[in-house]
Write a structure and sequence with these properties.
The protein is α+β, with helices and mostly antiparallel strands. It is 31% helix and 22% strand. It has four helices and three strands; from the N terminus they run βαααββα.
Amino acid sequence: EDKIIVLASDGVFEFLTNQSVIDICAKFTDPLEACRAVVAESYELWLQYEMRTDDITMICIFIDDVGSPQGSTKDLGVVASVASAASGDGVDDDLISNTARPVRSTMTAEKSR
């Protein structure tokens, strides 16, 4: 029943929960735009809490059922895309739900100086 598959580096999940990543992706019909939004949000959070960023790379796959008769093997329509922080795309704050709070919410000693 899942409609979105996300494969991402640990840099994506340092400050975003699994659910918040899916929530962001679900707001898009294009997996590339979903990737860009998640990567941009992750990048912003890294810079908020650290002096550097980790690898922020993501693959997003949208899976749609393609009208198959009930009881038969389903054919799947799959659309996938990849994005990383190097793409430099921004994301609007209204794309992020209230449940998208950072997983880690403390700054390093170096950043707090």
